[in-house]
Amino acid sequence: METLKTQSAYSRALKTLAICTAISTVGLTACHNDHDSVPTTTNTNGMVTLSGTAATGAALKNASVTASCKNNSGFSTPVSTNDKGQWTGQVLATNLPCALQAKTADLALHSYATAAGNVNITPLTDLSIAMISRKNPADWFKQYQVLLESQLKAATDEIAKQLASKNYVLPEEFNLFNSTFAIGDAFDKMLDALMAAITSSSLKNYNALLNQVVATGSTASIPAAMPTPPNNTRSCASRKLPVTTLNSITDYSGVYKNKGTTVFNLDTATAQIIASGNTAMVTEVCGPNVLNNGTNHVLVTDKGYVTLFKDNNGKYSAETSDFGGFYGEKAAANSTPCESNGADDKLGFKNAPQDFCSFSKASSVAISSPDIYTFFNADKTQNIKITVENKAVKSVQLEDNTYAWACGVGSYAACSGITFDQRNASFVQFPFNNVVLTPVYGTQQPITIKNGLLIHSNSTTTPPVTGSCVGNTSP
Questions:
Q1: Weakest mean pLDDT among 18-32, 223-237, 309-323, 326-340
Q2: Of the given ranges (234-243, 300-309, 422-431, 463-472), which has the lowest mean pLDDT?
Q3: What is the pairing mode between strands 47-53 and 117-118?
Q4: Do residues 391 and 422 touch, judged by C-beta distance below 8 A?
Q5: Hey, CA dihedral for 142, 143, 144, 145, is it positive or negative?
Q6: Distance CA 168, CA 294 (A)
Q7: Phi/psi zone of residue 16: left (φ > 0), alpha (ψ -120 to 50 degrees), beta?
Q8: Is 386 helix (H, G, I), strand (E, B) or coil?
Q9: Is the torsion defined by CA of 286, 288, 291, 296 positive or negative?
């Protein structure tokens, strides 16, 4: 009977995905339940809305979401996720399709939008892209590579087959890229089960699975789902993790915050935690689980689980889908901040982390309506994005793979000390003078762009749409 049930689930999943793809003329956007529908009317300025949820099971909170569309374009304004992993942004309709990236300090996930509406960003969309491109999705995102309808169908069919054969339950009529979901629902719980299975398998972490998919072009290495323990059973054994003592994790004690708000407090001396205002007692400590990028432990409490993580740079974080769900970071121990001096096409900082002491421009791109100038360092691991409105700087975003700061975005303080200078028709320049940026992720310390000047040559502005494949390396 179990075999028949598995085959039935697999058949339903394949049938749904096949129908979705067959009826779509622009990719994976035509199969939604009624409640999935999102208005796709193009605004008078030619913009359409993309929105969705970014999650691994746990929400990707406060992640920066970036779109890479045709003509070096992207979102009209900076986009980030909320505490439930939800995000929304606008792109020019004529510049679809768009590659999407949701990035935190520890993880980057990717997806693909062929039309306006809901677009999920999850490990499954990330794995789909890895299968198709045979590249790490982070490398794929740095280019503009169009994905074909036939490629998307083959990837989602393969993933549906693997999930069904390994005892995961994919909701019926669910499109991996476009059906809506929410933290805590059936699909989200399936993502939780997938990530738990990866951690408990020989793979140990998601990046190891991703590397295998890139190497083989298949998701056959997805591990089987673990048996679900009874609801009243919480233990390290149920998660197939070793047991350790509270005394071994005293360095994790302390207050964890998210955007300045305390979300978690661990006291290893009393075995007590306060999570999202709820007090609970630690009953077991699981771990250590040593990963490529750090070490994690799982706290088993009388009210739920909390995962603790310490990365290789010594940064501590805590997260869980229990206690209403949260992610928080522990304030780093004080260290001598870095200070540097800027110059033409170089920014000097005050109060910078030791591993982020300056920024030197190697290239830049610009889009119009709205006017957004993005400057990159040589390997494009660091970038600064400047949005201009009515010939004045509206926002600044500075980030690399570890840190991000901003001003003029959402509830962050307005930008001050930077000007838009276009006295010469051949270039635009942005002089900086003690521009204070608020931390977005990776640190709780504001950073000051002490001085420096960034220059964008107007000869590198986005070329007009020609309606031709000439110059496009994609198929």
A1: 18-32
A2: 463-472
A3: parallel
A4: yes
A5: negative
A6: 28
A7: alpha
A8: strand
A9: positive
Q: Tokens 């003592």, residue?
A: 245
316 pairs with which residues across the strands? 310
Any idea how long the chain is? 475
Quick: pLDDT tens for 11-47.
444 444 333 433 333 333 334 333 343 444 456 578 9
Q: How far is CA 7 from CA 11, 218, 327, in A?
A: 6, 20, 38
**Residue 167: which of 6, 4, 3, 1 has the closest Cα?**
6
Contact 175, 32 (CB under 8 A): yes
Alpha-carbon span 285 to 244, nearest angstrom: 5
**How far is Cα 436 from Cα 442, in angstroms, rounded to an integer?**
16
**Could you report the per-residue pLDDT of 152-210, keeping only the tens digit for each?**
889 998 999 999 999 998 888 889 999 999 988 889 989 988 988 898 888 888 999 99
Angle of CA points 223, 229, 235, to nearest 5°: 95
- Three-state DSSP state, 78: coil
